[in-house]
Specification:
single chain, 1262 residues, alpha+beta, Alpha-Beta Plaits, six-stranded mixed sheet, 46 helices, 13% strand, globular
Length: 1262
Amino acid sequence: MSADLKWVSWNVRGLNRPIKCNKVFSHLNKLKSQIVYLQETHLLNKDHNRLRRSGYTQVYHSNLNIRARGVAILLHRDVHFEEVSTIRDKNGRYIIIQGNLFNLPVTMANIYAPNWDDEQFFRNIFTLLPNLDTHNVILGGDFNCVLHPVLDRASTRHNTNTNANKSSQCINTFMQNYGMVDPWRAKNPTAKCFSFFSPPHKSFSRIDFFLVDSRLLSLVRAIDYEVMVISDHSPVIMEINVSGYSPPQRNWRFNTRLLTDQKFMEFINKHIDMFFETNSTPDISHGTLWETFKAYIRGQIISYSAHDKKQKLKRASEISNRLKIIDQCQTTSPSQELWKERTLLQTEYDLIMNDKAIEMHFRSQLQHYEHGEKASKMLSHQLKQKAAANHITSLRNDKGDIITDQKNINKQFLNFYKKLYSSDQCDTVTIENYLEKIKLPVLTEADKTCLEKDIQIIEVENAMRKMKSGKSPGPDGFPVEFYRAFSPKLLPYLCSLYKYALGAEVLPPTMRQATISVLLKKDKDPLLCESYRPVSLLCCDYKILTRILADRLEGVLDKIIHPDQTGFMKGRQLYSNLRRVFNIIYQSNANVDPEVIITLDAQKAFDRVEHKFLLKTLRSFGFGQVFCSWVDTLYKQPEAAIWTNKILSEYFVLSRGTRQGCPLSPLLFNIAIEPLARALRSAPDVLGIKRAGQTHTLSLYADDLLLFLSDPHKSIPKALNYIREFGKVSGYLINMSKSLIFPINEKAALMPHNSFPLTVATEKIIYLGVTVTREYKDLFKHNLKATLNQAKRDMERWSSLPLSLPGRINSVKMIILPKFLFLFQTIPIFIPKSFFKELDRLTSIFIWNKKIPRIRKEFLERRREEGGLAMPNYMYFYWAANLYKLIFWGMSKKNENIPLWAIMEQDSYISGSLASVVSSPLPLDKKLIPNNPVILGSLKIWQQFRIHFKHKQGLLSAPIVTNVLFPPSFIDSTFQVWANKGIDTLKKLFNEGHFLSFEQLQEKFNLPSSDFFRYLQVRSFVKKHFSPSLQTPPGSWIDECLTLDPSKKGVISYLYHMFNTAAAPSLEIMKKQWQKELGLEITGTQWQQITKFIHKSSICIRHGLIQFKVVHRLHISNSKLARIFPGTDDTCPRCRCETGTLTHMFWGCKSLQAFWGVIFDSLAKAWNIKILPNPLTALFGVTPQNCKVTTIQASALAYSTLLARRRILISWKNSRPPSHKQWVEDIHSCLKLEHLRYAIKGSTQNFFKSWKPFLDHVKKFE
């Protein structure tokens, strides 16, 4: 297998200007180039990331330390190249890379030679070329000399010099000695064609060319020179047939940018109406109608896009063709008229391409303006290490041989997945007999009815809304954005389609199809097919349907799936599995039996589920006919094609497996594996591990199965037999070589393990992303310490990125914080404050870019709405994640939301209620401290938290019943009666800050008079341990933390914000300093608005940083500079007569009065409001209390004045003040981006509602 690969060499004469850069890459896209040699990039080393665009993922460059020279080799993502070595010229004249191009050994060199005769330059390069005998050499570039003085040069002037210069002689000698050829000249022996025109010399020359190894000449399919546009050099285009390369297949995909084109929206809406009015007839089925619609509308979209593109580029193409003709004429019959015509055409071409490049530039600017350094995909791509191209270079076939041919690789995957998805054809009777032996819970009639009701339009709409944007579409190419944009018209037809599919028990063809994309799993062998995870790209109409069914199923699934299973279960969390594991391993046990944990590695568990078994299991759980019919329809002859290296295989039928990528699949898998879990749990010969009176046999997170076994010699063989029996009917298969046995007590560690078909792990195992160790103390080293070291490496790697302070904070929030938060949630281990100090130190170094911090981190940690930058406080997140677990200790065991680990820990503490220990005064009595390291660790964290917030007294959330400090509650059952009546915590005994009298309690809770003595007991208990004065003690917010509902979403975030608010430093100092300098009072309401406007004035994060620095007084004024460096002039650099305070330099300076005066006049006239120049608006964007403005006007004023402050900062140290014209230009520049932002969202009217008055006013003013 082979195909042509396109090389382009081009001297671009500088890429520093964004418009020029856009034009160059737009032209390269038009040429469909795959390997590009660029000369004269004029980029600095830090600028070369600009070249990673338009699909060019591999960039090799050499540059000078100034904006001159510079060469680069760009490789498109479709090109697989394995670099072996690189030679860079420090002067930016050449770059040489050696490696394997689709397994072809090559040396590629890009040269920008001096523009004088420099023979030594070429001699030096040729001696650097490595392995000329074993590697195919491809040289290209701007050689600044011609190979043939007659054929490669033409001039309007008389020139008798036909001798080759020394550089040319050197190149020709090298070509003769090493078998190199000029492929263009080899194919055009006597022709003339030129790549460069020199206006001063009025001469044409061919100084840009390729030289290739003579062994490659027969593979050069084409070589030509493009017309000279954009640069004064022609791009040289060469196509070489490369073995192993297959041109990528292009699958149609809807361009979501079209949705911002109003004409397109009208065009498609019209065609949707026309199609359904014409074709929606009784004789056409809904399935056929829908399939035809998608094909028709796809054709209309392609037609519209092609016509639009053709119209835009029609004139450019005409000019390009005419320029080529003129250039050919000039070489033979030059004339002044031709030269004039060329100049005019070149100018027109530049203007056309400028329009396109400017649009691209504005879109790029908008991305940076709107998303730049926010926690978004854009920032994520900057932070992540350059991922290896998703290209599979080699694979081991069935015979064990390594194959490299791309089509053969695709075929190998096809065969692998055909076999994987082929059913083992277990008979129905065997499946039914197996399921009959297992006692499975059955759905209620009410649940069944809920699942089987007709699909409603509102459900389809909700399913669309829930689906994420920006995801790859299925084989039909329509993403969810298309469905959302035209939902008013499509919703009824989708609803009818689904009803038809259920009745016909078959889906339309494209809804049954999927494209399987394979992703290499972490730390797996890339030569094996099984090392890749298959992800199904499904059509959106299919995913909308399965999303509806999944939403329905989620509501009833917890009633039939045991709490052991937490994967993809609503309200159940991954950390629950790990907390159980820790309790089992680290909780002391008097049992002398050996105990082990088995981690089972299931082979392609999702992909091996037998459809027949799944349907029988659904019926065994009591699912009704309609729902089972839906599942049967979804899995009736589904098809898939394999997508590897841009090659799509043929479609094949899937006889088993649940599709990874389908919203319904994980829920169906949980149902399919539940019979195995029930069988193991109820098996008398599979002995689980006992802790606190409970027996624990297994834990599940989707297909991650963990077994807890005692008496392993008996239990392990029996458990494996049950799993094999399950596998015969379901397709489930265990990979024994990757499954582990982990002894958790001494007796298990000492017993022989060679009788088990499992690998023994003696010290640690990896479970759900956490390293689980034999010793509790080692958890810190293997998890938190390791993550700290990784964080340090990440932040060091990011330090060179051009990020602002908020951008660096967002980087930490996106990458570093989630890793630690995951560990805080899953590992209940005490972490000393020294760890957080070190983490804070590393973070501070990164966010301040190794400079001295300008503001305390506590101010950065404040919420954005409260004037901060929301920098994470790791310690508060650690406390929030662990305090969240303590809330479960106070939950009743009867509560359906209580997880298994919470019941374990409650039962393991035999001294009383854990909730009562949590609410006890500090320090805790040693008698109250349990010997369970997990509970002890949580209590130490809780104690650390309370000491930090100086709250050692007892908490009123303390329960009365089984309170460890209140012995009567253990022996007097009447207190349980109190709890049943509502007096369950001490808090219920207080009202409006006072302890209730017995009479008040009697009246409120209907207590009998005989309970008076008990009342006295409780009151005495409260006085002794909680409130001697019987007044509500301080710290009620901590009590509130313990009374939250842990089953609700966002509890950890809520707790974190509570901690942050309680500890946040006041901004009162800043407020007073501003009041002092301004000589006026700022009200509380105004100050609240000032802090709010920090991030609300503009969507741009860098604008927000400007205002943050203003409010927090971080800009260096001359008066501040003089305080730092005594003797420095503290006067204003503009007026040179008054002290340069912040207020003066932003507002009070005489030279700024005219600037602010005209601005306020413009604002007042534009929006027809009465607003006089005032410092609050000028400095903070806040309108005066006596100025009546609408919300839109207030936002516009805040934005406008923010840009004025930015303009002042640009000329901060200049003697001349900024001008009104500069401010208007700044607003115009930003409003172009704002207008484009609104246009993309389809809300241009809102933009003009905000800004039309101002734009009209400025137009008049101009």
